[in-house]
Design brief:
With about 150 residues, the chain is an all-alpha fold. It folds into two domains: about 1-50 and about 115-145, no CATH class; about 55-115, no CATH class. The protein has helices spanning about 1-25, 35-50, 55-65, 85-100, 115-125, 125-145. Helix 1 (about 1-25) crosses helix 3 and helix 3 crosses helix 4. The radius of gyration is 17 Å and the shape is globular. The two termini are about 10 Å apart. The model has no long low-confidence stretch (mean pLDDT about 95).
Amino acid sequence: MVYIFFATHWALSVLMQSLFQHRYAAHKMWTTGPRRERVLHFLTFLIQGSSYLDPRGYAILHRMHHAFSDTPRDPHTPWVHKNAGAMMWATKKTYSDFAHRRVQPEARFDGDFPEWPWLEKFADAWPTRIAFGTAYSLFYIAFATH
């Protein structure tokens, strides 16, 4: 049961990351109506839980990555950091600055991504992230008894 839950949760998280965050929010590879966009947005949050990323922050960061790949302007290239931890921390800071509108990106990277302010604020709140982490932990405690 635990393995099935873990594998299914992981696969659905990767699917929503690829389908909604990457292909839809960052690249606009396909279009949909506002209702379906909201459903996909909510499902991405629900499935990814504490790992959910704001589509605005993700899209801007990813668009910059494609524009500046493996150069000092790439927001998450390993070539300008001392180690993987430093790179991940810098990426998190850049993402957060864009997601929370503390930094304004170049105009070419901004706009044309899904926005749902209420959901994004709720998803980013520490109580929400802790609740998801608690739910995951309780599930594994209950069903991973060996």
